[in-house]
Amino acid sequence: MAAGRQGRGEMSGGATPLFLAARGGHAEVIAWLLAKKAEVDRATEAGATPLYIAAHGGRAEAISRLLAGGAVPDGEAGIGRTPLHCAVSGCHTEATDPPGGGGAVPRPEHVWLCVLLGNVHGARRLAAALGYSRELWKSGGKLCLGLLAVCSLLWASCIGLLWGHSELRPEASVASLSSLRYCPASEPV
After folding, report:
1. CA triplet 157, 147, 131: central angle to 5 degrees?
2. DSSP per residue, 112-144
3. How many Å apart are CA 96 and CA 173, to the nearest integer?
4. Per residue in 36-48, pLDDT tens?
5. Do 19 and 44 touch, CB atoms closer than 8 A?
6. Among 11, 166, 173, 180, which one is least packed by beta carbons within 10 Å?
C-alpha cells in the first residue's frame, strides 16, 4: 500500500476492502464492512464502484447487500456504464433480482443487448420490467434497420471487390468471346 493511502484502507488503483469483497462476492464481509461505515459508493481510479464490480461478476448476494447498504443503483462507472448494463453485458441478469436491479432503471438497449448476446431469459425479464413499451419496440426497429444497413454495405463492398476482377467485367467477357472462332462440328479442330 502507498504510505498516504494506508489510513483510508485503500490500495493501489483506488481499490478499497469493500470493492475487493464485492469483486469476490463475499456478502458477509460486505455486511461487516458496511456495519463499520465503509463508503458504499467509493469508486476506484478507473471509476468502478463496488456495486459495478459485483454486477460485473454476477454476484447476486453481494449486489443485494450493497443495495441494502445504500449503493446507488444507477451510478455510472468512469466509462459511462451502469451496474445494470455491466450485468447485462456479462449475461448476469439473474443477479439483478428483482428485475431492474433493486432500483436500477432498465433501458431498451439493455433488452436488445441481451438478445444479441443470446440471453433470451434476461431479455424477457428486462422487457417485462419495461412493460413491453412502445419505446422498446421503436429501439428494436432502429436496431434492425441499422443491422440491415450494415449488411447492405458489406454486400455492396463484396460485389465491388469481386467486380474488380477482370473475368467478371462485362467488357472482359465480350472481348474473350470475340477471340473465339467458329468451328463447325464436322471439321476437326
Report:
1. 175
2. HHHHHTT-HHHHHHHHHHTTS-HHHHHHHHHHH
3. 62
4. 888 888 878 887 8
5. yes
6. 180
Non-local CB neighbours of 74 within 8 Å, separated by 6+ positions: 82, 84, 103, 104, 105
Residue 49 · residue 77 · CB < 8 Å: yes
Render 33-92 in DSSP notation, one character per residue.
Answer: HHHTT--TT---TT---HHHHHHHHT-HHHHHHHHHTT--TT---TTS--HHHHHHHTT-
Distance of alpha carbon 118 from alpha carbon 91, whole angstroms:
9
- Kindly state the cell numbers that stand for 43: 469508486
Dihedrals φ, ψ of 120, to 5°? -65, -40
Asked whether the beta carbons of 74 and 51 are under 8 A apart, the reply is: no
Backbone angles phi, psi at 96, to 5 degrees: -100, 60
pLDDT tens-digit profile of 47-98? 788 888 888 888 888 888 888 888 877 777 766 777 777 777 777 777 665 4
